[in-house]
Amino acid sequence: MAMTIKQLTDIILNQAEEKGFGTKPEDINVMEKIALIHSEISEAMEAYRYKNIDGKDGLAEELADAIIRILHLAGVYNINIEKEVLKKIEFNENREWDWDKMNEIHNTQ
Ligand SMILES: [Mg+2]
Known about the structure:
Blueprint: H1 5-19, H2 30-49, H3 59-76, H4 81-93, H5 99-107
Helix pairs in contact: 1-3, 2-3
Bound molecules: magnesium ion (MG).
């Protein structure tokens, strides 16, 4: 079942409308939505710590929760997240990372 990110976002927005989670900027509290994205990422970390990769509340499920919340927020703001992701991938293609400096920072903490 291949789908574009836009199609996934539309499904998520339809469900948000049905469940009363909001589909327009004035319907939602953006700070709360961002905090909820954080909480799903924290749940993903906890799942990984307990080596729960694909079980109930496992890493896979929590990453899916985070993506659903991110796509909901992007959809509410009509952000073309597919375009934004591709733009960042292209930017990162030519981006240089100073690994020596990064290792230096890690080793002094
Ligand atoms: Mg969760």
